[in-house]
Amino acid sequence: MSRGKLRAIKKKVEATKSLMKITRAMEMVARAKVRKLEREFNNFKEYMQELEGIKSKMSFKEVDHPLLKGYGKEVILVISSDMGLCGAFNTEIHKAAEEHAKKLADFYGYIVVGTRGVAHFRKNKLLKGYERLYDMPNVQISLEVAGHVMSLVMEEGVGKVDVVYGKFINALIQRPRVETLVPIEVSDGDENVEFEPNVGKMADSFLYFYLSSKVLNYMFETKVSEYYARQNAMKNATDNANEMIRTLTLEYNKARQASITQEIIEIVNGAEALKEIEEAG
Question: How far apart are CA 114 and CA 122, in angstroms?
Answer without folding.
Answer: 12
